[in-house]
Amino acid sequence: GGRLRIFGYGSLCWHPGSEGVLSLAGKKQEEDEGRPMVTTAPGRAVGYRRCWAQRSADHRGTPSFNGIVCTLLSDGEVRKLQGGDPADGKHPVSSTEGLIYTVDPSLANRCLSELDFREKGGYARDVIDVVEDGTGETVRALLYRGTPDNPAFWRRALLDMPLAAAVMSVAEGPSGRNDAYLLSLDEFLTAHNQPRGSDGGPNHSGDDATGELARMVGSLQTDFRPYFLFGAGSNEHGQLLLNGVPGDDNGSESTKEAHEVSEVLLVTPRDDKDEDHE
Hints:
By secondary structure, the chain is α+β, with helices and mostly antiparallel strands. Helix content is 23%, strand content 31%. The strands form 4 sheets. A 5-stranded antiparallel beta sheet has the order 1-5-2-6-7. The protein has a two-stranded antiparallel ribbon with strand order 3-4. Strands 8-9 form a two-stranded antiparallel ribbon. The longest helix has 14 residues, at 178-191. 32% of the residues are buried. The model is unreliable at 195-204 and 244-255 (pLDDT under 50).
């Protein structure tokens, strides 16, 4: 078949890996007469938005304290999660910046096998249209994204930016610190923030969260200390801070018992004796 196109919108924008097929990007291969077998070009996914709503227990967090990484959701999926009408066409169409990898056919199967393992934490293959920034050409590309029905999806992180920032300010996993993932992607987007169209808008207009999260994480690590409180089980006295009035005998059964963990964020100012990052 033809060449394989991969659209990267998360760590693939800045870290293809030190080994594997995508690490060959831009490198000339003698067995292919000096022609690179993997190339990259900036591009964007139209109608999709980058969302920080995917738990990471294997890369940027641990099973006991998950980190948060990004996924790519359609505009309709985001509107539905926010309580709106998925079919509402009154809102602007998102355009999310990323990196398009083009892989030689001889390496396609190996590349997919490597990505299947790398993206095993709730991500699945999908194929969408992407637009190359340099040429304006629309091409089909494969990507890995975590849809809202995958078990690692965390809707609250999407809707509660302070909580997401607090988690990313402290989480760490086998692939490194969560804040490094966030800041590296923010640097990539800043470098590729070229005006487009008559409105002069950014190429990554489908991402209004990454820069703000990066600023919030910096503030948390400098000025504040987050504490994460977890509770589940009996809520007879309202101690789990669920919806409803504590002590109200007429409250629904769901406010008296919590069979899923309830998570509460508490943030306090740091003092001069606190270390910069723990």
